[in-house]
Amino acid sequence: MFGCLVAGRLVQTAAQQVAEDKFVFDLPDYENINHVVVFMLGTIPFPEGMGGSVYFSYPDSNGMPVWQLLGFVTNGKPSAIFKISGLKSGEGSQHPFGTMNIVRTPSVAQIGISVELLDSLAQQTPVGNAAVSSVDSFTQFTQKMLDNFYNFASSFAVSQAQMTPSPSEMFIPANVVLKWYENFNRRLANSLLWKT
């Protein structure tokens, strides 16, 4: 029903079912994980009116699990990316995994998914810094493309004293590229403000 993905690792699709409505994935070497993706496999949808709250658990200094709410997945939002790198020193929150005897080892964190009513999911508050930027992928791509173009173009910049005459080539002053770059960035930022 669920999958879990960490960059540089194989996709996990065999969640351990610890209760009828609760599943966990083990995350070995969790100290080196920045983000985790939780997704539905598409084989079994949630029942009508249900979704899954997603929790991150890591062992505290005494080896006891600390659970933190990351967010949720639903039939309408079947995947989510969560930043977990800053959560390892935070405080735990209320969670539905407390009374379960889940097998774990000290160096392994876990992702827990609890199937719950959508109304209940809407009232939960995830830990603040788990959310990944809401900037869409097109905007991120555009920003990275602009940065790359500017860096590439400016790597060819030469002073007038260094230029050699070449009648077959056109030269564009670096300050013109910089002005275009700054204008485009400003317009992109303004368009994002209008979207929110």
Automatic annotation (TrEMBL):
One of its GO terms (molecular function) is nuclear import signal receptor activity. Residues 6-128 form the Hikeshi-like N-terminal domain. Pfam families: Hikeshi-like_C, Hikeshi-like_N. Its main location: cytoplasm. The keyword Transcription does not apply. Residues 136-190 form the Hikeshi-like C-terminal domain. It is found in: Cytoplasm; Cytoplasm, Cytosol; Nucleus. One of its GO terms (cellular component) is cytosol. It comes from the Eukaryota. Belongs to the OPI10 family. Acts as a specific nuclear import carrier for HSP70 proteins following heat-shock stress: acts by mediating the nucleoporin-dependent translocation of ATP-bound HSP70 proteins into the nucleus. HSP70 proteins import is required to protect cells from heat shock damages. Does not translocate ADP-bound HSP70 proteins into the nucleus. Forms an asymmetric homodimer; required for binding and nuclear import of HSP70 proteins. Interacts with ATP-bound HSP70 proteins. This is Protein Hikeshi. It comes from Cavia porcellus (Guinea pig). The gene is HIKESHI.
